[in-house]
Amino acid sequence: NNEIITCIDHFQENGYSQCHIYSYPYKWKVYNNITNNFRGELFTSVTEVSLYDERPFEDEFFLRIAQSFPFMKELTIKNLNAKNNKQLVKSNNDNQMLSIIEYPNLTRLDLAYTHHDYVELF
Questions:
Q1: Whole-model pTM?
Q2: Per-residue pLDDT tens for 12-34?
Q3: What domain of life is recorded for the organism (predicted)?
């Protein structure tokens, strides 16, 4: 029972588009250039993930990534845009719960082309 999934992204700043077309359940070990348009399915075979977008990634996106790729060992993030919502963690004085996103199998993290806002998530 396979489902065909498509996702099309246009990158205005760089002047190109990309299209992901794959059958689900996904069997490959690598999933590259995931953008904010990612729907959030479960990918149990994927161990290497790369994220790219011209729009900022927000905390909810990283939570979707962590939940969708439970066996992810390698993560590359390429996004030079600052987050819009910079309040990932608030103190108890603000009556907010501490929000921690866990990546239990992560052994390699590449943040070379990443805004410093995302470094604070790890």
A1: 0.85
A2: 988 989 999 999 999 999 999 99
A3: Eukaryota
